[in-house]
Structure formats: structure tokens, C-alpha cells
Task: structure prediction
Amino acid sequence: MFTELPAWRQAAADFKQDRKTTLREAFQADPGRAKAMSVEAAGLFLDFSKNLVSKKTMEDLFAVARACGLKEQIQAMFAGERINATENRPVLHTALRNRANTPVFVDGKDVMPEVNRVLKRMAAFSRKVRSGSWKGHTGKPIRNIVNIGIGGSDLGPAMAYQALKPFSDRKLRFAFVSNVDATHFAEETFGMDPEETLFIVASKTFTTLETMLNARTARAWLLKKLKSPKAVARHFVAVSTNAEEVAKFGIDTANMFGFWDWVGGRYSLPSAIGLPLMLAIGPARFGELLDGYHAMDRHFAEAPFERNMPVILAMLGIAYNNLAGAQSHAVLPYDQYLARFPAYLQQLDMESNGKGVDRQGRRVAYETGPVIWGEPGTNGQHAFYQLIHQGTKLIPADFIGFCKSHNPLGGHHDGLMANFFAQTEALAFGRTAEEVRAEGVPEALVPHKTFTGDRPTNTILAEKLTPAILGALVALYEHKVFVQGVVWNVYSFDQWGVQLGKALAAGIAPELTAEAKPRLAHDASTNALVRRYRKVNGRA
Ligand code: F6P
Result:
């Protein structure tokens, strides 16, 4: 257990000591602090100096990482060892963007030729659709592309499509349907012409209830207009690891883009799951995205922990989580294109490290993954920042911003970035009662207008949001999550916690629709809720 390591005890003691010093004092005492506590990698600049830690505590935390065998576990992941032990699988999303093309072996077989083959097929298909040479059943080119998938088969491409919109072909309209609520399908496809619409059914397992139901609805929607079942071949492609289920659904496996069980759903954006993104931005730009991922992968694998961006972010998060009682972590992108980035990170982080037992199956005696949340700035400033500035909870936050905008209109970008820099300054250094008084504020209001400061933030700054930068950013967080999973000694690549609800829903579904009054054997609350629903819908 990491909490029993001498290095951890040292970190705890030093961190406690650090917290007696304010950030104002820390910066005053060390003019080189900002420089010393900044790193650059893969086009990203990270300033972590506005954290409540000394350089000494950082060293302790790196020692904890070393004592947990982080170096060896990073190597094991990149080498394709079966580190996803509860599913007996390797974890090789890094192979998907292995631009060096060095061999990566799974059971003695190099996976790179297959990875490259699928990328080539995706590129060929994308070119056809983008050029209009891929025709729908009635001979019209495709104008609408609808991705049907959920979780990792939705959040990655949906987030990245939005992030990289300035690079996308604006003649194509993209939609992402995930929710089993039919409203999602109905609204996203509203006004689309089936003759010009291509559906990508994306599901690693091809058994996910929501996705299969949406896919069947999509097929019915298509056939209502196009009549012939032959139309399906021109309007449906699949992305999956499960060729058998794809064929059963009625999609020709010639129209299937595969990936492998060693790619976790929430890590699958650089696999064929990224097909909608490639269709939007084209194969070359998609290649740049992979380049960015790869650059961060190499940095993670090679940089010493002291300069290693994912390791730094991970260990800071662990300090707040396990030594300061922080329950959540905010991600605040100052870029409207990254509006879905927090939602994407929620799955990445919370499905990975939201675990309550360790790798030995014992209930953990310490906190694991935090609640991840966030909204783009500056919107969040006018909503929930009050609590971050003056509330009683410690909320470490990542601020993500860019020096250049894709939309340099008027003074918007400078205005945006002024807020970006101001917020971390305000959070770190606050405003003392003396300063407030000096402004002539009446005494009764002084406590209300005082800011304690010492609210920790990381600043991640890049030149411009490009495909490569997005790849680097996603890889940064993937590896941060990996490091934390290693220290917390949890399995970050399974997600058994999602199963119970699915199993219960499968049992409840027929109870909602049965003609005859079903015998309900749930608890009193669930039974009553099911009865109420049936009654409102005119069922016995
Ligand atoms: O229920 C959770 C989950 O299994 C995620 O891990 C996954 O990303 C999502 O469902 C979708 O799964 P699939 O791609 O197999 O449809």
C-alpha cells in the first residue's frame, strides 16, 4: 500500500509543512519558482507553480511513484503485457499512434501491420466520402454523417470533432447519437435526407443496448424512404472488434473497420472509433492528431519523473486527493472548441480510477479517483467559480488555454485570455482583508470581499488548438490516469461497476412493457416506481 511507504510518509509530512506557507510567501521567497515548476512537452507548456507544494514535496511524490514501480509499469504497458488483469488483456492504445512504427508484440505477433492496415482502409474510405465518390443507394453523395455509439464509442469522436471543427469539411454535417432516449436520434437526424446520410455504428462489443437500439431505429428510418434492404450497404458502416455481431446486425463486414480487445473504449479515439473525425478533418490531419499523441507517449515513456508532465499532474492530484481531502478536480478549458473535453475526461478518469478495491481484491483504505467536472471558461466564471474562490471545498483545477484563436474577432481572444490568467492569479493569491480595507470597503463587507487564495491550479498553455495539440492533450490525461492507477494500486482498464445497472435494466425492461400485470420482486421503492410508470402509460 502506497500509504505505508516511507516516501509517502515523508511526502505527507512535507506537504503538511508546505501548507503553513501561503502561495504569496512561496513566490516571494523564491523568484525562480514559476520557472522551476514549469515543463514543456509535445507542444504543451505546463506551469504547476501555483500548487500548494514545495519542490521538496514534489521530490517526495516522485519517490513515491518510483517506489510503486511506476517506471516498470510504464514499460509493461508499452510492451504489451497483460496489465488489464481482470480482463486478461494488454493495454496498447499507444500502439494505435506508434508513429515510429516500431514492432509491438501481443502473443509474439507484431500488431503494427494490422494497425496500419486499418488506418489505410479508414483513409481510403474517408477520401471516397469526402470527395463525393462514395454514393448513397440512389446515387447521391453523402452530406450527413451520423455516429451511433455511446461512452468511449461516442465521447472521443464527439469531443474531437467539436475541438477540431476549424479543420473540418464544412460541407459535411456531423451528428453524434448516443442516448437511448429516442429524442437524441430524432433531434440529431431532424431534417436530414436519408439518401445523403451515412451511419457509423460504433461499438467495441456491438452488443451495447443503447447503440443497438439506435442502430435499428436508424435502419428503419433509412428504409422507410429507401425501401430496399440493399440500401443498408451504402449507408451503414460499422466500427467494432466483433465481426460476428456486426454481420448478425446485417452490416457487411467489408464495411467494417476493426480494432482490438487491447484498446479500451475510453482510450479508443485514435483507433477506427476515430472514423467520424477522420471523415471530418481528413486522413492527413488525423495523422497529425496521432503524431501529437505519439509525441506525448514518448515524453511519458522517456522523461525523468521530475520533468514528466503526466507524472507531475498525477502526483499533484494524489497529494490533494489523499493528503488534503479534495473530492473533485475541475478541468476548465478556455476554448469553446473544447466544450466537450471535461465530459470526455469524466469517462477517461472516472471509469478508469473510480474503483474501491485494489489489485489484490481488498477494499481500499484510502481515497481513489476524484470526481472530474468542468465547463469552458469564461462561462464557468459566471456560474460555479464563486465556490472555487470562496467556498469551503478544496477544488484543484486545470486551466487549459491557447495563445492564438481560430476566430480572431475583435478583442475576444485577448479578453478571454485575460480572464484565463486572472483566474489562476486570483485563486492563488486571493485578496487580504487589509487590501480590501485599503480599497475603502465598509468594515461589514470586508469578510465577504476577502479571498483567502491558496486555491491550487495547473496552467496548460499551447500555441493553438491543432490536431497535434489535441492528441498531446488527450495522451497527457490518459497517462496521468495511468500513473494514478499505479499508485492507488487499482486496475484502471476494466469497468465492472457499469454492469449491475445494465443487468437490472434488462430485467426491468419487460416489466415496463408486459401486457399482464408483472410480479414485481424489487424493493418497495422500485416496485412502486415501476407501478406508477405502468399506470401512467395505461398498463395494468
Ligand atoms: O458501459 C460502459 C461501457 O462499456 C464503456 O466502457 C464503453 O466505452 C461503452 O460502454 C460502450 O461500449 P461499446 O463500445 O462496446 O458499445
Summary: The radius of gyration is 25 Å. The pocket of 6-O-phosphono-beta-D-fructofuranose is lined by residues 150-153, 203-205, 208, 211, 265-266, 351, 495, 498 (CB under 6 Å).
